[in-house]
Amino acid sequence: MALTRLAITRLITSAFAWSSSGKTNDDLVTNLVRDRRLKLPAVEAALRRVDRKMFVLPAERGAAYDDRPLGIGYSATISAPHMHAAALEFLAPSIAEKGSVLDVGCGSGYLLAAFAALGPGVRAHGVEYVPQLAKMADANLRAHDASLLESGRVTVTVGDGWAGLPERAPFDAIHVGAAARSVPKALITQLAPGGVMIIPVGPAGGAQELLRVDKAADGSVSERTLFGVRYVPLVGGDKDEV
Ligand code: SAH
After folding, report:
1. From the CB of 160, is ligand 1 less than 6 Å away?
2. What's the whole-model pTM score?
3. Which of 27, 84, 167, 183 is least enclosed by beta carbons within 10 angstroms?
């Protein structure tokens, strides 16, 4: 029986997505490096400092070091490690060791911990639509390293990411963890000159693309498509319809 081209593509894609899985957090990071999904030493060091197990549901702890997304409730997922690695690699250069970053749809809180691990001066602010998930992110971060929240280096705010987080802007980097219908204007406004935003754009459940948005020193904005992705939708945004 002949497999369709689509079925073959899916098989290859899923096998590849799993190939970096490990038995421990260090193992997972080592495999991401081996598979060339992680190249920057600063990002590698950050990922070794953040144990993914602390950010998954207790029932999923056995799968914490699998290179795949895991459900965290409320239709949300903690993204696959290779996607977190890709996002960090795009954003780390503009954050360096003391930048400020916004994570829209911070979900489990994993990326906030990873951004903070890039350097002792980094500030990472999360905005999350679902109050229960914001509470979960807060609890996960507290268990990972309570001093991050206590010092104010990491914050979690309940809100609609379409509006960004004006009280903490501007940001050297913005990560959006859910697919938007279009790039929210407020996020472009809140990006600092020299800043980079990574955002999935496209219809819910349909063809989505990861975009990289750069704001140059003179304030001009350019966009380019990186690759096709599949994210849960960025809900809300009623005031930002275009
Ligand atoms: N990056 C996170 C979560 C990804 S799932 C992680 O890896 O753990 C996407 C998240 O975006 C969910 O938590 C969802 O509740 C949140 N979300 C969806 N729409 C949002 C909006 N308008 N504003 C803020 N968060 C939103």
Report:
1. yes
2. 0.93
3. 167
